[in-house]
Specification:
This protein is an alpha/beta fold. It has twelve helices and 15 strands. The strands form two sheets. The chain has a nine-stranded mixed sheet. The structure holds nicotinamide-adenine-dinucleotide. Residues 8-14, 17, 35-38, 41, 60, 75-78, 80, 98-99, 125, 127, 162, 170, 185 line the site of nicotinamide-adenine-dinucleotide (NAD). GO terms for molecular function: nucleotide binding; oxidoreductase activity.
Amino acid sequence: MTVRAALVGLGFAAQELKLPGYLAARDLVEIVAVADPDPHARAVIAQQLGLPPEACHEGYEELLARADVDYIDVSTPHLTHLPILALAAERGVSVICDKPLAMSVAEVDEMIGLVERSGIRAGVHHNYAHFPSHAEMLRQIGAGAIGRVDTVTMSAHSVYAPGVMPGEDGWRGVARLAGGGILMDYGIHLLYLSLRLLGPGFIPRTVTARVDKRRIRADADVEDTVTVHIEGERGETAALTLTWGTGTSGHTVVDGETGTLQIRYPDGFSAQHNVAHELQIMRGRLGDPESIPVEWERLPLEWYYGGSIRSFAEYVRGGEPSGVATLDEARATISLALSAYESVALDRPVEVPLSPASPLYSLGVTGVHRMELASDNVIRRRGLYRPASDEGAHE
Ligand SMILES: NC(=O)c1ccc[n+]([C@@H]2O[C@H](COP(=O)([O-])OP(=O)(O)OC[C@H]3O[C@@H](n4cnc5c(N)ncnc54)[C@H](O)[C@@H]3O)[C@@H](O)[C@H]2O)c1
């Protein structure tokens, strides 16, 4: 029996990346309806899926009134994730939502409560963990190939993000709609990957971050450049660097007690979403790199969301949740991202987890304006993270 899914939000992620995953999973899941206020987006998807006009809705409210949807897959701007999940929970429809699940830790807590009370199944597209390169890296670490992991370093440069560069527009450049810049966007992938690579024994203790805005459109109030350093209880570290609009190379290196794993991308390819070139292992400190065979990512992009889609559809069909990223994992990554913004506001390392007393816990990134910001703080200098007019600010 196939599972009946509906897509909510039919923009870049749905059209370019999710659709190939769903087309390849037709044995397991059928898309029976879609919703998006944009008629062009509806027409494009309807044509590709062969959907009749009555299956294409303008609003998710109308879509969630249907009786034939087992779960919705949400790919809308970050600010809309909570209200969409809330209505789905009320209607008893399961939900997989794209990352970042929410704008603040308080929003994730509300979502966790809604899911528990309604009994729906819920998950998050932390899809990079399913990429063959990352999945094999995690498998090698689980099998003890490099001993206990001490250090993860990842960089991602010139990451593609529709709407952020000069001449473009859209919600991604607006903090109160996106919840932050590249860190809340692509950085979420590097945060959950870091947590998984460092393993369940990793307990983060401090976060130190720097941000800047250099290349993106002038009216954007989010960062396009970020470095984050996370230190764990036993001295383990994750060091992440991300940029929109600069740089040509990216890397993922994981150091353990007895060796190193490294993913290489073809020359000029800049980030973890690109088709990987080679997974190498260096056994011992002076070992020669050996290639680990991997069933590499290829075009078409079935693999991009494929693993995440299949695991969630199986879960909705009554299977085990293994492979589905949980709301708890999303909570941990969003909490770390907000701690990073708190570190930028205070211009020093901060202890984690983020305290419920921090304005960022409930307001998200715009909560930085409820803190004492030094006159030369980058948030002031670059005019970052402007709150909605009714949120107010005092500095
Ligand atoms: N997991 C990944 O690898 C990955 C990759 C790209 C994007 N994303 C995520 O996907 C989501 C969407 O990003 P995008 O790049 O597709 O954005 P986008 O702006 O291209 O598309 C968003 C779509 O949502 C629609 N929309 C807005 N409000 C809506 C509502 N209330 N109901 C229904 N539709 C609504 C818009 O009309 C638009 O078509 C974000 O959460 C983003 O972070 C994830």
